[in-house]
Amino acid sequence: MAPSSTPTIDIESLGLDQGALLLIRRALAERPVGGELQVRGRSPDWQMHLEAWCRSQGHPLRFETAVDGIAQARITRGPHAEGRWRDAQATGTAHGDINGMPAEDAASGWGLAARGATVEAGSPDFFFALHRRHELWAATAGELYRQAAAAQWDPGTAIDWDAVFELPPPIEAAVVQVMTYLIENENAALLVPARHLGQIHPHYREVLQLLALQCGDEARHVEVFTRRATLRGHEPALSTAGGQASLRTLFDAPDFSVATFLLAVLGEGSFVNLLNFLQANAPDPVTRQIARLTARDEARHVAFGMAHLEYRLSVQPDYQAKLRNAIEVRYDALAHTAGLNEEVFDALVLLAAGELSPEAIARGHAAVQQLQRDMAAGRRARLARLGFERDEAKRLSDLHTRNFM
Amino acid sequence: MSEPTLIMGAVAYAPKVVTIWEGFKAFFVKNGLPFDYVLYSNYEKQVEAQFDDTLHLAWNSPLAWVRADRIARSRGQQVKAVAMRDTDCDLRSAIVVRADSPVQTLAELRDKTVGMGALDSPQATLIPLDHLRSAGLVKQRDFQLRYFDVLGGKHGDHIGGERDAAVALMAGEVDACCLIDGNHLAFGLDGTLPSGSTRVIARTGAYDHCNFTTSPGAPADLIERFVALLMAMRWDDPQVRPLLELEGLREWRAGRTSGYALLERAVDDENFYSRDGAILNPDYRY
User: Fold this and answer.
1) Alpha helices per DSSP H over A334-357
2) What is the distance, to the nearest Å, from the Cα of residue A185 to the centroid of all Cα atoms in its chain?
3) H or E, element range at B267
4) Which of A17, A53, A84 minimises the CB distance to B195?
5) Residue closest to B86 by CA, chosen among A211, A68, A55, A259
6) Is B58:B10 a contact under the CB 8 Å cutoff?
7) What is the Cα–Cα distance from B222 to B226, expressed in whole angstroms?
8) Closest-CA distance of chain B to residue A4, Å
């Protein structure tokens, strides 16, 4: 008799409950549907287990005695195993298309699967409000994420909390007031992206990862500003209704791009100027260190906001009208508020002055005025980069909330 | 007048039963068969409802099939097994001892303690009892029987009794335990019975498990459409596959009744049901 051409695997003394199923599954997967596989084994229960397994998987099975008198199984590959992957969903590739771009629209049925994974048909739909590329993408998102991951710092060690300094009580109080103001703004800067983060389809993982680190940045900022405010035993100081009303408009912005525009491009952009001002003018080394580290993070947040809006406007130029409208609506909404509260304004003057003499105050006041000019110039420049005409950029910059953020 | 609705009974032995039958109901209705189901907490009430015009058919355990068949025959009526799962055919149960047990054969279980499943479990109690009886071992006379009586009335559908018996075997509380062959593999894979820790000393003959049992006088056209739709369910249909997975099958098959002989014999030998389907076991709670 000619030897059988049916492939044979010998699982030797390995039990099906010890891993032999893996060997059988792999060997069977190489057979066509209806093709056969012979299995030989020696573990005590292998035949009973194989019978139970084949029954559960829909593979016909029979036992026979081989030429050498040893029992062997003959499995016929059933039609079901590959059924699971019929009409499976392709989800692009891990690194995007040849230009590194993810899909234009991520399907709800791709769910939480890795980008590039093959997803079984019938997987549950997930609702992600942000599932279209132009609504959230930035060409540099991956690069910014890598930068952000590399630039994380530890508040416990990055700042010399034990640095020796002593400030006159009015100056220390001014620091506490500025820190109080910074904390509420950073709470907004944490919560606004966080509210959108949970709505982003994970197909756009670079944006997801970057925003997660942005939230981590802001959490750290809240910590260091709080630690500085309370470093000399004070509680945080005053928070105005106008300031919170201004932040509320960011908080409530339902559209990711609009929220990013108002928060990152206009607000955090101005904040970079403010933090640079503190780095240059703060009266103590701890505040200066904090300002330096947080400004670096904020600059990255601005970079993402700009990159996202540049991308969106490149594929949807008429979106510019929405941005213009967002500034005007926000200006109207805040028209009845007091703008930057005088406590914060005075505190900044005092910090820059370092003392209460008229001469010093004059210096401090001039510095704050220069800060406001720097902020306005920065906003105009960013608006111009987003394609607004020079005069329009100036007009819109001037409409930006006097609360800076 | 609207078309009559086919009413099916199913036993809620686990929460997934709701998911399964809600899904199947949607499938049947979408495919033009008015269908609804009623859930029972035990098979005994379900079988009885097959004879009072409540149900047109029932998704019955093998033991429920035996009872329905007996009641019908005693009344000069007929019930039919119209469909079953591919995985309902040719099951076997195993009688298992610890690997280090001195017991090598069934005869050596004499005067030992054997752990079984629920009182009403075909696979973990009644059929193993039949197998032991065939080997000359009668419960209580020749060996001690310890039931792991989880969820009476569910006819052993719940895996809990078999698992409890397996755990008791490993703890040395019983000398042997009985379980379905697939569960011996499953408990090996999940670590309940660590690989190599047990030895199978006997396997029962092959038997069949559940079937869809029609009630006497069930509307033939609706039943026919029901069976045709079952047979049309495909594992590679992503809408249906999760339900088939939950129900533990790859495809539906035509019903057959050739695989219930062992259970029939056990039911008589254990005085579980009378010839006309009355419940005889005084300890049975459901």
Assistant:
1) 342-353
2) 19
3) helix B261-269
4) A17
5) A55
6) yes
7) 6
8) 28
Q: Which two tokens stand for residue A176?
A: 């506490």
Please report, in tens digits, the pLDDT of each residue of chain A (405 residues total).
445 589 999 999 999 999 999 999 999 999 999 999 999 999 999 999 999 999 999 999 999 987 887 889 999 999 887 788 889 999 999 999 988 899 999 999 999 999 999 999 999 999 999 999 999 999 999 999 999 999 999 999 999 999 999 999 999 999 999 999 999 999 999 999 999 999 999 999 999 999 999 999 999 999 999 999 999 999 999 999 888 888 999 999 889 999 999 999 999 999 999 999 999 999 999 999 999 999 999 999 999 999 999 999 999 999 999 999 999 998 888 887 766 678 899 999 999 999 999 999 999 999 999 999 999 999 999 999 999 999 999 999 888 866 676
The nearest CA of chain B is from the CA of A86 a distance in Å of 6
Q: Which of A52, A78, A82 sits opposite B185 (nearest CB)?
A: A52
Burial class (CB in 10 A: 0-12, 13-18, 19+), A336: exposed
- Shortest CA distance to A299 belongs to which of A324, A327, A274? A274
C-alpha to C-alpha distance for A212 and A217, rounded to whole angstroms = 9
CA distance B206 to chain A (A): 11
Let me know: does A125 contact A111? Beta carbons within 8 Å: yes
Pairing outcome for strands A61-65 and B211-214: unpaired
With beta carbons under 8 A apart, name residues in chain B contacting A80.
Answer: 235-236, 250-251
Q: Are A160 and A377 in contact (CB under 8 A)?
A: no
Residues of chain A contacting B, Cβ within 8 Å:
15-18, 44-45, 48-49, 51-53, 55-58, 78, 80, 82-84, 86-87, 120-122
How close is the nearest chain A Cα to the Cα of B195, in Å? Answer: 6
Residue A301 — φ and ψ, nearest 5°? -65, -40
* Helices and strands, counts by H and E, chain B: 9, 11
- Residue B44 and residue B154: Cα distance in Å, rounded? 9
Q: Which residues of A touch B98 (CB under 8 A)?
A: none
